[in-house]
């Protein structure tokens, strides 16, 4: 299923949208506040965000700006009762990809989502995240919380491999083979130890990066 986030404080509307889109092959996660949406986005990135303008803890255009600053290519579709031209312009200036006024037909919403995804593709695969660490693979950028973190190529490839295997323990031998040996750079085990130490230091000793004693490492979200 294609993952969507729906940021909406009217639970009746949100549930109706979720149930309908489920029949079309979409898995919809409902967020009833901006704070919840931010937390969820920092843990995983969907293929598209459906965003209501009026929320109890903030305006939709401000959240859209935050989304766009962190995930430049993540599509955002506004769903709102605000339909005057000034608000529409503000929404697009904030980075929205499309705008649908309430009340709307579910079939129309489905068509709009399909159109947005055809234009943007499934950008969810572009972004990896775990424990406040985020990677934009297209732009080759790493963030820790809100700060961009400069990494060496070896550090970046090490983190990328662990992120791609999030939730699984990766042995030291597999890491050495994937990060170094595949590129014809045969290194010893100490190189991995030193690179891992530097990576952890740059990421401020993240709790999500676990050492599995005598085996290897694992990226894991906090329970």
Which features would summarize this protein structure in a list?
2 domains, Arc Repressor Mutant, subunit A, 223 residues, Rossmann fold, elongated, alpha/beta, five-stranded parallel sheet, single chain
What would you say about this model in short?
The protein is of the alpha/beta class. Helix content is 42%, strand content 24%. It has eight helices and 14 strands.
Q: Which strand order spans the largest sheet, edge to edge or round the barrel?
A: 2-1-3-6-7
Rg to the nearest angstrom? 20 Å
What is the top-level CATH class of the largest domain? Alpha Beta
Instruction: Name the average pLDDT.
Output: 91
Q: What profile does the largest beta sheet have? A: 5 strands, parallel
CATH topology of the largest domain: Rossmann fold
Number of helical segments? 8
Helix and strand composition category? alpha/beta
């Amino acid at each position: 299923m294609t993952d969507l986030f729906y940021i909406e404080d009217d639970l009746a509307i949100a549930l109706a949208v979720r149930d309908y889109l489920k029949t079309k092959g979409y898995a919809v996660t409902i967020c009833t506040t901006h704070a919840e949406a931010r937390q969820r986005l920092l843990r995983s990135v969907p293929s598209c965000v459906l965003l209501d303008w009026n929320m109890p803890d903030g305006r939709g255009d401000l959240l859209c700006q935050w989304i766009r600053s962190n995930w430049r290519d993540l599509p955002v579709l506004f769903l709102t009762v605000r339909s005057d031209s000034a608000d529409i312009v503000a929404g697009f200036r904030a980075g929205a990809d499309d705008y649908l006024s309430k009340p709307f037909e579910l079939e129309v919403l489905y068509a709009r989502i399909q159109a947005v995804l055809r234009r943007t593709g499934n950008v969810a695969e572009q972004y990896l995240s775990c424990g406040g660490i985020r990677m934009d693979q297209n732009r080759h950028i790493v963030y820790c919380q809100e700060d961009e973190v400069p990494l060496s190529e070896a550090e970046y490839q090490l983190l990328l491999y662990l992120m791609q295997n999030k939730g699984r323990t990766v042995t030291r031998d597999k890491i050495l083979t994937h990060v170094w040996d595949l590129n014809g750079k045969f290194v010893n085990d100490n190189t991995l130890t030193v690179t891992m130490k530097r990576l952890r230091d740059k990421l401020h000793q993240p709790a999500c990066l676990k050492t599995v004693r005598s085996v290897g490492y694992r990226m894991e979200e906090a329970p």
